[in-house]
Amino acid sequence: MKVEIWSDVVCPWCYVGKRRFEQALSRFEHAEGVEVVWRAFELDPNSSSHPEGTEVGPDDYAQRLSTKYGAGLERGREMVSQMTATAATEGIDMRFDRAVKANTVDAHQVIHLALERGGAQLQGAVKERLLRAYFTEGEAVGDRAVLQRLAVEAGLDAEDVSAVLAEGRYVDAVRADEAEASALGITGVPFFVLDRKYGVSGAQSADVLLSALTQAWAERAPQLVMTGSAAGPADGKGADGGACGPDGCAV
């Protein structure tokens, strides 16, 4: 079963949603049969990127929130405090006072590269590295030199990353993800799509995500309902009905 997750690396609820999904997956009895693919979604495609070494004030992120939502600075501080507390319950140390403003198209390109080079496992490792870098470590994930370093730490090749970013090799793939999100009616992230049958919007609880996984799996592999005899004679003639097998049909 394939689970596609649209998210952004500067989205706090996406980080929380990732943790909750991981909890759900750890409790799912068919976890080994689930492939997780991360899809691109930019919260602000027009955002600028600040370089490595940018000094961040304690209220910079709160000010960004207050500007975006038309609220005062105090309301922005409250939102930061609430989000920090929520993240902590999932084991995430969110340091908004360190968050460096970033455009994320290049980060999404690196995530696409990871999927191509190492499959879902490497892609997941790169996604996690970038989320932690932005939200906990105060790394400038919109700075290409920083992105290259972080990607290498997660398992990618430095020259490969550099070439991809210089060429813009996966920009079209990023735009395709975003166009698909629009076609699917996705307006906020995280958004989980299970086998292209079910959609789960937002950082739902692990219980809700586990329920969605269970339901999607059940529809993918429906239970076999047996009728008639549970086991027939060795000659293939069932007690209640005939059947055909590799060796022919019992008559």
Concise overview:
This protein has 251 residues and is an alpha+beta fold. It has a domain at 2-54 and 100-220: Glutaredoxin (3-Layer(aba) Sandwich), CATH 3.40.30.
Topology summary:
Elements: E1 2-7, H1 12-27, E2 35-40, H2 60-69, H3 73-89, H4 105-135, H5 144-154, H6 158-167, H7 171-183, E3 191-194, E4 198-201, H8 206-220, E5 244-245, E6 248-249
Parallel strand pairs: 1-2
Antiparallel strand pairs: 1-3, 3-4, 5-6
Helix pairs in contact: 1-8, 2-3, 4-5, 5-6
Please describe what this structure looks like.
This protein is an alpha+beta fold. It has a domain at 2-54 and 100-220: 3-Layer(aba) Sandwich (Glutaredoxin), CATH 3.40.30.10. The protein is 49% helix and 10% strand. The chain contains 8 helices and 6 strands, in the order βαβααααααββαββ. α2 crosses α3 and α4 packs across α5 (144-154). The longest helix is centred in the middle third of the chain and has 31 residues, at 105-135. It is globular and about 55 Å long. Residues 225-240 have low confidence and may be disordered.
What name does CATH use for the topology of one domain? Glutaredoxin
CATH-defined superfamily of one domain = Glutaredoxin
Class computed from helices, strands and strand pairing? alpha+beta
Give me the number of helical elements: 8
Strand order of the largest sheet: 2-1-3-4
Reported for the largest beta sheet, the result is: 4 strands, mixed
What sequence of helices (H) and strands (E) makes up the elements?
A: EHEHHHHHHEEHEE
What is the radius of gyration?
Answer: 23 Å
* Mean residue pLDDT: 91
Question: How many beta-strand elements?
Answer: 6
Oligomer: single chain
What gap, in angstroms, lies between the N and C termini? 39 Å
Judging by the overall fold, what is the CATH architecture of one domain? 3-Layer(aba) Sandwich
The proportion of residues in beta strands is: 5-15%
* CATH class placement of one domain: Alpha Beta
* Uncertain spans: 225-240
